[in-house]
Design a protein that fits this description.
mainly alpha; about 75% helix; about 0% strand
Length: about 120
Amino acid sequence: MQLWELLAVQLISLIGEGGFDSLYARSIHLTKVTFPWLAHCAVPMAEPTASRFAALKKCLDEREFAEASQASISLLITFIDILTGLIGEHLITSILRSAWGDDALEPAVKEIKDE
């Protein structure tokens, strides 16, 4: 949840809450093909920022660790892939670096490039 929260802060400052919510909803929609139960994790647009990921956390907590981990990773990769398609790899790398720092970013970038 911490990666999502840090990323949300960075992106909302650039694209607003509506833009972030749209990208997040699209990511849920695409990822639920593999993990149908993620459909219940979508957050209503009116949710305050502080509880933005409460529904996702609840959904993940209800699953076995392995399945929850796979779904969480898949959702995050889908979200980043959508952003990369919209704004390009250089800019998304810069945003991720600002949000997560270099230590968290290097493994994430490697995983995305390996896909």
